[in-house]
Design brief:
Blueprint: H1 17-27, H2 31-47, E1 51-57, H3 66-75, E2 81-84, H4 86-97, E3 101-102, H5 109-114, E4 117-120, E5 123-126, H6 131-147, E6 152-153, H7 155-165, H8 172-178, E7 183-184, H9 192-201, E8 207-208, H10 210-223, E9 226-232, H11 235-245, E10 251-258, H12 272-278, E11 281-291, H13 294-309
Amino acid sequence: MLKNVVEDYTFFEGISVDELVLQMEKAWGFTAGKLALGVRILENMIKDKSCVKFLSFTGNLVATGTRGALKELVKRNLVDVVVTTCGTLDHDIARSWENYYKGLFEMDDAKLRQKGINRLGNVLVPNESYGIIIEKKMQVLLQSLWKEGVKEITTHQLCHEIGKRICNESSILYWATKNNVPVYVPGITDGAVGYHLWLFSQDHDFKVNLLKDSGELNDTVFTAKKTGALILGGGISKHHTLWWNQFRNGLNYAVYISTAEEWDGSLSGARPREAVSWGKINEKAKRIMIEGDASLILPIMVSSLITRLGA
């Protein structure tokens, strides 16, 4: 029990992020120790060639510079499957063409509304950078698909086409398409992209086949020798990832990053140990819950991983 001594940080000019994270394993206390263990678990997960690696995150992160960290995980082939929300598609398309801006949590929201500016936390999203550009790009995309004879599509296929046709190298979906990383969006109607799918369907016999997505996920988990997941935040993307992995006796690796509390019984705040009771995480899995803001924690973890893996 008393084997590992707590050690102080030491600093020197030019210290790297990974060197700092390595020191966290010895400095311990409190979230720093969890962050260090999370990086170690992800490193082992990625090095495990028999493991199918899931990345689950919520769309709000894509409105921030954290989009770049998520993009790097996909670009460098450090993940095999992405499960996310419709907001990811919205922000990834929008930011491929327009800018979002720095704001504050405390602003006059009535004045922002009058000026056509939407506030997402402390990020400012002008109408022309969101609804207008998404409508323009999605209507062109859907018309093109229709002319090519596409009348039914899965969210995986939709994300592939978005990445191929209307995004650029700054985009998560661009790299997912380029590297053949499937992206699944179980809550596809909950966002601007989903709205335009519905709108297009009003005068076209166009359908989204979510059940085919489910079939692909079923095949993925049942043919995997091992699975692991980096899960950022909660909601439907978290649950969908855990849901499918319960059918193969749970994830073998699991790293959660979330600010949500568990005392309200929400899935977003549920800790990995709760998922063990459902069989969604294997009882012998390497797992950790890191309490904190993913926009702060994830860039540190990704930077450290890139150094360790030489990715």
